[in-house]
Amino acid sequence: MSFLVITGLSKAFGPHVAVSGLDLVVEQGEFMALLGPSGCGKTTTLQMIAGFVPPDRGAITLEGQDLIRVKPNRRGLGIVFQSYALFPHMTAAGNVSFGLEMQRIGRAERERRVGEMLALVGLGAFADRFPRQLSGGQQQRVALARALAIRPRVLLLDEPLSNLDAKLREDMQIELRHILRTLGTTTILVTHDQAEAMALADRISVMNAGRIEQVGPPTRVYEHPATPFVAGFLGKTNVIAIDVRAGAGGTAAMIGAARWPLPASVAPGRATATVRPEKIGFVLDGADQGLAGTVRTRVFQGAHWLYQVDTPAGAFTVIRQNTGDMAPGEGAPVRLTWRSEDMTIGRRE
């Protein structure tokens, strides 16, 4: 039996449909990310799981139990909000202890768990400090310790790292991943940050307009996007118009005069394809393979170079690692190449 099962979940606010017929299964111990732009329904979905918003239709079951019939405070869920929602008049220890007191846990056990959780998040020495005396990252860890102290059946994270600066956010991603893997806590994260979802989650559910467009491990969703929306939202991508032709040399995608072999199962006709910028390489020195183009802009970004290249098939974004080798400059003629397997065939015409 699956651990958390969501079936046909729907919610509308007046004429606006926030979530429409959503189906999702989360296994025990899994870290699932709900990823999508603002207004896609991910936060509403989380709030329905938590019990803060009643669904119009659908079912939510946890270990076979109908959660919709259970009051929010009885669902056994831990929640970390974007704002952390710490009690300003309580110390870090007091905040972590609060949920345990509500569960009527005895004092000795309560103190043991508080100490254990604060040590786990690296704040054992900060137990007596108030939220105003803690940095943003430390407050975030107190909120996490408070949610985990009650030993939740599922941990719900509502964009918990969005208020941190970029460097601290990256550090907290590593810490959060380690903590939750150590505990084996089933976790659902809501985020609009693609890098955060890929760094943390075992699987990603990409949402758009109240529906899930694709579910899968980060590498699969990134490398093999199921729809143009997924390809465009989960990182940079190039969308290309191609002409699939069958001939004596086999089936191929024609992009201008350039040719990319395709499996025979791909039917001939006009279509679109996507290819990630980092999958594209340059061929120089007058070679005749690949797609001819001219470097319009070149931007140095430390670990890599970001290019915009004009071609007869349109503008391409190219990302090349900074290896220290000479990089083609603006105005330079280049040819773009990539492997056929790095190109995802999308909508057909």
Short description:
The chain has 349 residues and is of the alpha+beta class. It has helices spanning 42-50, 92-102, 107-120, 136-149, 166-183, 194-200, 218-223, 228-233; strands at residues 4-13, 16-26, 31-35, 57-62, 65-66, 77-80, 154-158, 187-191, 203-208, 211-216, 238-247, 250-255, 258-261, 269-275, 281-283, 291-300, 304-311, 314-321, 333-337, 343-348.
Question: What would the keywords be for this entry?
Answer:
single chain, about 350 residues, alpha+beta, Rossmann fold, OB fold (Dihydrolipoamide Acetyltransferase, E2P), 2 domains, six-stranded mixed beta sheet, about 25% helix, elongated
Number of strands: 20
Q: Summarize the biggest pleated sheet.
A: 6 strands, mixed
Structure class? alpha+beta
How do the strands of the widest beta sheet line up side by side? 6-7-8-3-9-10
Total domain units: 2
CATH-derived architecture of the largest domain = 3-Layer(aba) Sandwich
User: Can you tell me the CATH class of the largest domain?
Assistant: Alpha Beta
Average pLDDT score: 91
Rg value: 25 Å
- Judging from the principal axes of the Cα atoms, what is the shape? elongated
Strand content: 35-45%
How far apart are the termini? Answer: 42 Å
CATH topology of the largest domain: Rossmann fold
Query: Approximately how much helix is present in the residues?
Result: 10-25%
Low-confidence region ranges: none
CATH superfamily of the largest domain: P-loop containing nucleotide triphosphate hydrolases
SSE ordering: EEEHEEEHHHEHEHEEHHEEEEEEEEEE
Number of helices: 8
